[in-house]
Design brief:
With 422 residues, this protein is an alpha+beta fold. The protein folds into two domains: 96 residues, Serine-tRNA synthetase, tRNA binding domain (Helix Hairpins, Orthogonal Bundle); 298 residues, BirA Bifunctional Protein, domain 2 (2-Layer Sandwich). The chain contains twelve helices and 18 strands. The strands form five sheets. Strands 1-11-12-13-16-10-9-4 form an eight-stranded mixed β-sheet. A three-stranded antiparallel β-sheet has the order 5-7-6. A hairpin with a 2-residue loop joins β14 and β15. The radius of gyration is 27 Å and the shape is elongated. It binds one RNA strand of 93 nucleotides through α3 and α4.
Length: 422
RNA sequence: GGAGACGUCGCAUAGUCCGGUCGAGUGCACCACCCUGCUAAGGUGGAGAGGGGUUUGACCCCUCCGUGGGUUCAAAUCCCACCGUCUCCGCCA
């Protein structure tokens, strides 16, 4: 939820943000109107309520013979209070609904436009080249019996898979590498719940435009999370945090579930786009004025991971129209996938400023009382990374060199050979 | 799944039977100051959250006793539902 004070005092900033997202400017006018109506309704209700409170005291203090007459009067007042309260509650609900439909205000410098209007900030590392026919990640993995798509489909349907043998070990190694690096950077490791209540899912901003993407368990009124960002944001809901000593940083490992509705026919081969995968996610609570610096740090840790794995990548500044509801700015790190001749997203880091925190009631004590904190998130590793690792480090005989950083997590294994791996 | 107990402003508690004096008392912790020859003890005062108004004054008002309803002129207190915690029983990968 955006700052109501900003809406009232600087609506132009909100309008410009909507324009750069290519989103509706009309909702800004709706929100302003709802805010004004809300305040008027509250003022009227509170005036009547104050009157009723004062009257109640008279009734309590009155001698017995006068009480009946006073109570008769008070009954009328009570009716007026009740209806004014109803008006006030309705106005408040309408305001909340309206303002929540406004996505976060984008930061200065974010490129305007849609999906293809990103700005490339840098390209890092040399793209691998091969003097043989490169195999794609699935062909390589099948040589090691590391990924089993057919049986995944048999058991669970399309876009499900088994990671087996070295495939399973490789993923665990990757996650452990990420966790150790996060630990060194001061993150607290967390394994969160992956089923969450509606208000938590709502609070993180995922029930808006991405509602179709989310698995929902009707019998229990719970949602399966598509990222541990959701439970990590909910972790401190309705709390006042002490961020005076610096940002509070969590590294959450979880399985992620995505319906991938509307992506029929896209990335159907292998594990690029699947319904279930694992992810190590960074999640940070800090003050609003430190958010942008922290965002750069998150990006730095992500790049450090890709570099340690010997991957070639680029960093893009995602355009306003392609930001999620909660994000004010987002950087993606995309790795080069040789057989696709393209960069594919491996990480994403968003600065949600105070948007999520305002919805979830997460505050800290500032100079003038409590203020919402800023929240940020960013990927540190996912199952998809296996695609880039396998393809980048493949050799002519179908074997794959294991990046040095991963070897300690695989008992020193240096190369995966077809047929021999387990 | 069944039975019972409980859920109060950081923590611990009083208050709930018999509705108005609870716009919530006390202890601990916390902050400021005082006293004290010093990381103790004592004293005084302060201090919660959300929202509205405003002559923008360190001022006024409204709301918050798990959540949501209800009864009432008036609810922490009465009624209903739900959520959570604990104990016991049952069942179970």
């Amino acid at each position: 939820m955006i700052d109501p004070q900003l809406l009232r005092e600087n609506p132009d900033i909100v309008r410009r943000s909507q324009e750069s997202r290519g989103a509706s400017v009309a909702v800004v006018e709706d929100a302003i109107e709802a805010e004004t109506a809300r305040r008027a309704a509250i003022a009227e209700y509170e005036r009547l309520r104050a009157e009723q409170n004062a009257f109640g005291k008279q009734v309590a203090a009155a001698p017995k013979d006068q009480k009946a007459a006073l109570v008769a009067q008070a009954q009328q007042l009570a009716a007026a209070v009740k209806s004014a309260q109803q008006v006030s509650t309705d106005a408040d609900r309408r305001f909340t609904t309206t303002i929540r439909s406004v996505p976060n205000v984008v930061l200065d410098g974010v490129p305007p436009g849609g999906e293809n209007d990103y700005v490339v900030l840098r390209e890092v590392g040399e793209r691998p080249t091969f003097d043989f026919e490169a195999r794609d990640h699935l062909a390589l993995a099948e040589g090691f019996d590391a990924i089993d798509m057919a049986r995944g489909a048999k058991v669970s349907g399309a876009r499900f898979y088994f990671l087996k043998g070295i495939g399973a070990r490789l993923e665990l190694a990757l996650m452990n590498l990420g966790l150790d690096r996060a630990l060194a950077a001061g993150f607290t490791p967390v394994i969160p719940p992956t089923l969450v209540k509606p208000e938590i899912m709502e609070g993180t901003g995922f029930l808006g435009e991405h509602a179709d993407e989310i698995y929902y368990l009707q019998a229990d009124d719970l949602y399966l999370v598509g990222t541990s960002e959701v439970p990590l944001a909910g972790l401190h809901a309705d709390e006042i945090l002490d961020v005076s000593a610096g940002p509070i940083r969590y590294a959450g490992w979880s399985t992620c579930y995505r319906r991938e509705a509307g992506s029929y026919g896209k990335d159907t081969r292998g594990i690029i786009r699947v319904h279930q995968f694992n992810k190590l996610e960074m999640y940070v609570y800090t003050t609003a004025d430190q958010a942008e610096a922290e965002h750069q740090r998150l990006l730095g840790w992500q790049e450090g991971m890709l570099q340690s794995l010997g991957l070639s990548y680029r960093v893009i500044d995602v355009a306003a129209g392609d930001l999620g509801t909660s994000a004010a700015r987002k950087f993606d790190v995309e790795a080069w996938v040789p057989t696709q001749g393209a960069y594919r997203e491996l990480t994403s880091t968003s600065n949600c400023t105070t948007f999520q925190a305002r919805r979830l009631g997460i505050r800290h004590r500032g100079e003038d009382g409590t203020e919402p904190v800023a929240t940020l998130n960013g990927t540190l590793a996912t199952t998809r990374w296996l695609v880039a690792i396998l393809e980048t480090h493949q050799q002519e005989d179908g074997s794959v060199l294991i990046p040095e950083a991963l070897r300690p997590y695989l008992g020193g294994l240096e190369v995966i050979r077809p047929g021999a791996a387990r």
